């Protein structure tokens, strides 16, 4: 039996989604475009996450190496904040948006991600504690 993971990784079963007339004609462009879209969806919701998630993890890693623990807070721009919330929803983790003082925040692992709308959209700051 083929598992769901094998199905997504190999792209098997994509032909089932192709309309019958296109499958009968063997339209390689349609098949390749559908395969590309499925790979893009898989990449977008993967556990590795987006560039924003990777940059936050890198900042957490730096803080763990320097101080031996995760930072309490990391300030981020609007685009990064939305990427974190979208990623949490995609991997079915709780995405509870709270307020820290006058700012919005969301919990990511052991760090609170704080929205700083006055910074650039792709800004990821240094981790810090209270």
Structural description of this entry:
The protein has 130 residues and is of the alpha+beta class. The chain has two domains: 41 residues, no CATH class; 78 residues, no CATH class. It is 46% helix and 18% strand. The chain has five helices and five strands. A five-stranded mixed beta sheet has the order 2-3-4-1-5. A hairpin with a 2-residue loop joins strand 2 and strand 3. The mean pLDDT is 83.
Entry summary:
This protein has five helices and five strands, in the order ααααβαββββ.
Helix and strand arrangement:
Layout: H1 4-10, H2 20-25, H3 28-44, H4 51-67, E1 73-76, H5 78-90, E2 97-100, E3 103-108, E4 111-115, E5 124-128
């Amino acid at each position: 039996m083929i598992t769901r993971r094998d199905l997504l990784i190999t792209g098997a079963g994509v032909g089932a989604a192709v309309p019958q007339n296109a499958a009968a004609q063997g339209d390689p462009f349609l098949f390749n475009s559908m395969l590309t879209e499925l790979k893009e969806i898989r990449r977008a919701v993967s556990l590795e996450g987006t560039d924003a998630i990777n940059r936050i993890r890198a900042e957490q890693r730096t803080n763990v190496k320097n101080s031996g623990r995760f930072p309490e807070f990391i300030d981020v721009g609007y685009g990064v904040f939305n990427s974190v919330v979208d990623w949490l929803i995609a991997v079915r983790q709780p995405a509870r948006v709270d307020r820290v003082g006058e700012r919005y925040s969301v919990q990511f692992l052991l760090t609170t991600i704080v929205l700083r709308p006055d910074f650039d959209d792709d800004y990821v700051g240094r981790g810090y504690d209270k």
